[in-house]
Amino acid sequence: MPLRFFNTYSRQLEDFEPRDTGRKIAIYTCGPTVYSRAHIGNFRAYIFEDLLQRHLELRGYKVRRVMNITDVDDKTIRGAREAGIPLTESTAQFKEAFFEDIETLRIKRADEFPAATDQRYIDKMIEMIATLISRGLAYQAEDKSVYFRINKFPNYGKLAHFDLTQLQSTGRVKHDEYDKEHIGDFALWKAWDEEDGDVGWESPWGRGRPGWHIECSAMATALLGDQIDIHCGGIDNIFPHHEAEIAQTEGVTGKKFVRYWLHCAHLLVDGQKMSKSLGNFYTLPNLLEKGYTGREIRYALMRVHYRAPLNFTWEGMNEARESLARIDEWLTRLRETAAKRTGKEKNKTQPGQQFEQALDDDLNISAALGFLFESIRETNRAMDENELDAATATEWLNWWERVNSVLALEPVQESVSVIISTSGVEGKAAVGSGRVIIEEAIPPDVARLAEARAQARLAKDWRKSDELRDELSARGWEARDTKDGQKVTRRAGG
RNA sequence: GGCGGCGUAGCCAAGUGGUAAGGUCGCGGUCUGCAAAACCGCUAUUCGCGGGUUCGAUUCCCGCCCCCGCCUCCA
Q1: Do A383 and A349 contact (CB within 8 A), yes or no?
Q2: Nucleotides of B strand lying within 7 Å of any protein CB atom
Q3: Which of A150, A285, A369, A468 could form a disulfide with A453 if both were Cys (CB 3.0 to 4.6 A apart)?
């Protein structure tokens, strides 16, 4: 089955056929506007894009991805002015925060993160605007700003499926644009005004700054060429942003700009869109402070199909935590089983292809995870019954490597287990997160507690045994009593 | 008003013209001194509502309702 994606342009599932038969594909993803810390709703979109890239790579595509950073617009200028610092200083701190956050969430870095204020792209934007004006697709109005003339671009409205005569103002935008020929004409170049302070660039139309939409057209074509395979963003970017990008870019190049438009649904809070303006948002540090890890947040934001709205709840966060614990436990067991050489071949289970096949189908993550958890139950059952040999366990671990190359949910910290009996440390089964078995000594205080507990258990002093288990737990180590003795495990984290 | 999306167990959620994956939570059991983990069992005669097509619809068609988003700040 070929890969297929839901293309916003056609509103249909389409087989994925990239331009380059050599499997190189170009993806452009709309990045953050760095006027404040991004919230986790923003990151839902970036995690979706990360899943997309990772799955394409698993399927053998060579992905070149660009994510822009919008570092000049009304909000960034206002933010800097209110903070009393230069624009570049203000945006720099939020850029830094953004990179921290994507690392915490294990989002692969794009190949390029072009910034709108880079002179190279300002020049490109000016060049594009000049071309649009020369073709009658843009004009400079009385207010000195340059606007795109949407009536001259017949396809305008096609992506959003809007009938331009029906466009209705929601009153959210200041009506200061009386000079436009059509209410739908959008700014390509915004003339400087006092509120802009020292922010501005010289252009053939006077001092000003780029409109929001043109930056993406310029950066996308500068870095990826006139035609790209996939363009992603949040569903709220469809109109006007992506609609405008098509008009500007195709207005200049005369070629079809994007083959597949993929848009991610919103993250909701209490059934409403998470947004800065509503104030119902959480940032990554907000959740980290509550004790959730990056991978737990990643899982929580990733587990629902990207085109379905996802309601953010604390219950959902805990569900993510428990689900990951199940995966961690399974990995630990598999690694222990893989380390044992029994010589007997008793495979009952074999990894299947359903995981990646589910993702082939418009990134059906729920079906993919469903198969993962089914596999976990089946292999656990086989291990319970001692019917899964080391070779099979290794096969499953190799399968997990593939799965994890897409999910990126491996626990960061190795889980270390030590069997302790009355005679001290008996067997050492240290299990690392990679393929390599790591020998790691347990901390002296943990060893002391565990040994004391073993003694208490020998004396059937259950109360003391339970107290010591609590103490170990407080240090992040879990004591479990198995038929081989007490097993002490450092909880996996990450 | 226009456009788009959603509605499946307490919660999250997959799915198919032939009788409901998976996760989480809860309950019961195996194991355990007790736990934990794992496994087993139970938990939607039913898929927003009303019609229609069909031998049969959650799945297709028509109508309606709810909620959410976009309609020039937004992932």
Answers
A1: no
A2: 1-7, 10-15, 21-25, 32-40, 67-75
A3: A468
